[in-house]
Amino acid sequence: MIRRNFLRNLLLFIFALFFGYTIKKYGENLILEKGNSINVKGNDGKSIAEKIKVLMEGMEETTAEMGSVKDLGENPRSLSRSLSERGYNVKDFGAKGDGKTDDTIAIQRAIDFVKILGGGKILLAGKDFLITSSLVIPTGVHLIGLGMACTSIKTMTNDFDAITIEQNARQVTLRDFDIVSNKGVGEANCAIRAHENNGGAEHRYLNINIWNFKYGTRVGAVWWNNTVENIRWNNCDYSFYGDGGTGGQCINNLFLRCYSNEPLTNGYYIISFKNTTWYSCNNGGTSTKSSSYMHLINSKGMKLIGCNFENILLAQDDGGIVVWSDSLVSLDGCSFVNNKGVNGAISYELVSRDEAIVKVDNCFSIQKGFGMKDFCSINDSKIIYENSPNMTLVTNLSSIPMVNMDSIINQTRQYTPKALGVDTIDRLTFINPGTGVFSERIQITLIGVENIVASAYDLQANGMFKVEFINISDGVRNTSPHKVAWVVW
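The structure corresponding to this sequence follows.
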């Protein structure tokens, strides 16, 4: 214990010397306070700088006197490196974690210390840490609590963000604690906010409960290769709000086993993302206020796999999931349970609009509320669905017909696109088998190919159909040859 206290206090002295803090003793604890430690004199008239120099020169001898240091390893590296691997306790920087003390300065002091060292772990070893301004997290900092419902960061007002991540920060971890707005939803308060113009990469948000914010998590452009795992957003206006802007560099992000619980307006509101996957995520609504699960806008390669959407109240003609503005989205193995419209108004599990393309596979809907329908397609959008036998109530307000793949006509041909994946097919190929005459209404699909959609557009001027293949993953036209099947009316 004596050796451990010595090493800890030595680090505090070194930090104070180089970064302008002074050290005061409160009871048995040494506390850092902002000041000019180089000019501070002791009772003997010597500066702290001189005393630190003496301590450093005598460190080897003092360590030998204290005995073995085998718990630091057989070949100890630097003292700071060894301690950083264990993590720095915010209580060593003055934090209390007692739910009464303002711990903002103490926690930020620990963050700044670890930043100077080039990164490391910071331990929130307490129950309730109150803050009055945002904690700013730089590259390489890993903020770790004792567990969900064990450790919490609580904002004392609702006019600031709890955690702000520095511009273009990399390798940031937030895990094992709760974030709570004590005063509820504010005009713009956020639990976790990444920079709006350059959000950074390689972040991991894990095992966090978030309560009562305008935005549970909000990110901006250039936010990529991040993992959001086991996050539970509760009673936030927006659980997750991501605006990729026009840069299109919000890409390759992953949501695992997250829970958007009772959002006040929208669970996920996503603009201009690419290649993002939700795996085994839950989405719950409330029976007292209308909201929606997810809006996906101008986003390509969005994949929802094994997700559940349950118990939301929808406004008339609204959708639990709304996909629009040229988005490409696929749902596989998802469930829709006990969703309903306000006062039995007509509403939908899924709405596709404004040239969006959605593929639905192996999904089901049960316990529909009165007036609830499955799909609605609006304004030149498309929904392709298969292996979803009980999802059949369809409203089509689009000029492009929706297609149930389970009932597609068994006519196939090998088709090789030309430049840019676009070619034409003689419209006389498409004869309605029921009437024996040409049909102007056609929908084609690929045979034995996943993650690619096929489109056919009528070119009445020359009696041909234009056909193109598009990758769902990135929205790029596909130029490989594929076998297609078609249905005509």
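The helical segments are 2-19, 48-57, 59-66, 79-86, 104-116.
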